[in-house]
């Protein structure tokens, strides 16, 4: 008789420290006047200067949570795509994604209703464009961030074959 051991899933933890640097400009007394400036820090990495979206009194020159969510989805998809491309013999020479998220602001709260990834991938002439395009489906299915969302994450890729 053989017994099959159940495998426990691997658990990964990520720690970030958020510091409200806007406090240096004065306390949060009312909605209109306080600074939304923050820094997001993680050990061994440069800080991310963040704020609220300008629509919510934030600073346009800083990342906001909505930007970071869309960027995280695009980055996770790309990392999986590049990995899968190497496994399948697709040689990628360039990758750029202009991703767009749609957030609906409702009377009591807001929520994302969708994000669309638009990766433009350049591959070598000896790579198979059909395989390159199909890999986006698998990358989407594997992306940890996309798997965590409660809204649709769409992908409309463009494959460019480099002249060569």
Task: Please explain how this structure is put together.
It is a single chain. The chain is α/β, with parallel strands linked by helices. It is 23% helix and 26% strand. The chain contains two helices and nine strands. The chain has a three-stranded antiparallel β-sheet, with no helix packed on it. Strands 4-7-9 form a three-stranded mixed β-sheet, covered by helices on one side. Strands 5-6-8 form a three-stranded mixed β-sheet. Strand 2 and strand 3 form a beta hairpin.
Q: According to CATH, what is the topology of the largest domain?
A: GMP Synthetase, Chain A, domain 3
CATH class of the largest domain: Alpha Beta
Intertermini distance: 59 Å
| Count of individual helical segments | 2
Radius of gyration: 20 Å
Q: If classified by CATH, what would the architecture of the largest domain be?
A: 2-Layer Sandwich
* Main beta-sheet strand count, sense and barrel state: 3 strands, antiparallel
